[in-house]
């Protein structure tokens, strides 16, 4: 069995029971509870069922002392129900029914479960399609019933009643696992010059706990990861001194304690790479022409339209001898020939800029 505790010392308020195929769901719930002001004050424990091992008597005591139990019903965990020794230990552990919450993770309800657990219908039920508030409410209800209070939030302030972190992490189709939270981070600067000491600021979408150590791990492709202690600027912003790494894109992971609360990346570059990047952008013929004609934002369609209209407006009545195209008399300038001429003219114009670029 694998046990992992997070939170502050004290009795275990939330026990998450899962199998290996629901590891990321377990991680997601821990992150959710960590950033909910009231629940993060309690101690959370995760318990992984492994193989055919039944729950020991010592571990059964752990279940008995937990105020709420979340059972992550994944395909692997459900298979344990068909192992007599494991099933018997679960029947003893998942009691009393008011503190058990069943969360379906990629499996559906089945009549067999009523046979396995006599209190199955009395357990609170959640699915992977529910909103985070539903998970929080189920845990609070179980804890409040265990304590005999009407509500676990009776003594909370108004701010504490509102979850700080209510944004739902994206779930994958396979196991309902949490994906990267990089979309919720802002990094400044996101380009770091190699060999130059740089302070990187990371702005989170969710509040961070100032009492928990926050670190940022830099994971370069061809070197060992480097974890750096971050400094809290405010509840949403941390700063970190970027380590000296070689050029390339470097993934970052933000840790609050032992939990990953965000992922993003930065790019390290040398002086020559930065110069090459600037020259490549400056030599872009389409961008150059858009700047010249004050087309903002850059649009090749708008540029094409402008050149076409300009050509139609300024073409001499007697025709042109340009780029090897035969002179066209005004009376023979049919629509199809004009379009063909415009196409070749613009094509040669683009080629001229490309070939003339530094």
Summarize this structure as a short list of keywords or feature phrases:
elongated; Immunoglobulin-like; six-stranded mixed beta sheet; five-stranded mixed beta sheet; Rossmann fold; disordered C terminus; 15 strands; single chain; 358 residues; alpha/beta
Task: Describe this structure as you would to a colleague.
This is Phosphoinositide 3-kinase adapter protein 1. It comes from Limosa lapponica baueri. Its main location: membrane. Residues 187-323 form the DBB domain. The chain has eleven helices and 15 strands. By secondary structure, it is an alpha/beta fold. It folds into three domains: 2-161, Rossmann fold (3-Layer(aba) Sandwich), CATH 3.40.50; 182-272, Immunoglobulin-like (Sandwich), CATH 2.60.40; 294-356. Helix 10 (300-314) crosses helix 11. Residues 4-10, 149-183, 327-331 and 354-358 have low confidence and may be disordered.
